[in-house]
Amino acid sequence: MAVTYELASGTAYVTLDSPENRNALSSVLVEELTAGFTAAAQDRAVRTIVLGHTGTTFCAGADLREVGSSPELRTRQMLDVMRLIIDTPKPVIARIDGHVRAGGMGLVAACDIAVAGPESSFALTEVRLGLAASVISVAVLPRLSSRAASRYFLTGETFDGAVAEAIGLITAAEDSPTAAVADYTTMFGKCSPQGLAESKGLTTAAIRREIDERGTAVAEQSARLFASDEAREGMMSFLEKRSPSWAAQ
Fold it and tell me: For residues 97 and 75, what is the distance between their CA atoms, to the nearest angstrom?
């Protein structure tokens, strides 16, 4: 299994558990992640959902060994997963204490609360592979300030939890993300399910509009870029651990 599911004291723990490929968004992981969120959304005993991970990487983004064979399907899957997290009528907390890259940033942005520990780092690496953060932009851009978006979308540079908090990507950088998650689950346990669902709908409205209005266009852009010669070179250079042909020496 690439994703585990556990229910304890009203909290559903959906955990990315494929550390051997850095929790990349493989077809199996996406299917199991979808199943986990669907089960949690439908279970009346669940009050809060925690999206966590095993290993040193929260999510490395698309599985580059798969995406080249069916870019249209992969980009649509990413859009659907973000929509599922956003439309789930229960608060979703991302518990991060590892690296977040590319598509993983979309998962984080889709969550209602995101807490990151000291081992966390973040980067929108698509630009360095001949790609763009197309699909995930519908969730990420509403979270960021305009200047931060320009900087990190265009440079692909890595930043830490403190910066992620300052620019709005995460809720808080914490010494202990597990303790912070426990505090949030306690607070949500004091709230009514109806109140949470209706309040969440207000806070996610901007992202849902982005998905509805731009989802098809960004999915098509992403599929086109994945099929391009430049992106093939970028992905191959990454897999072969070498610099791409365009990189300044």
Answer: 26
CA distance 228 to 237: 14
What is the C-alpha to C-alpha distance for residues 102 and 64, in angstroms, rounded to an integer? 11
Paired with 48 in beta bridges are 11
pLDDT tens for each residue of 108-143? 999 999 999 999 999 999 999 999 999 999 999 999
Please give the biggest Cα pair distance in the chain: 57
β-strands 172-173, 121-123 pairing:
unpaired
Give CA–CA dist 64/68, Å, rounded.
7
Q: Are 4 and 16 in contact (CB under 8 A)?
A: no
Structure tokens at 26: 């493989």
Classify domain 3-176 at the CATH topology level. Answer: 2-enoyl-CoA Hydratase; Chain A, domain 1 (3.90.226)
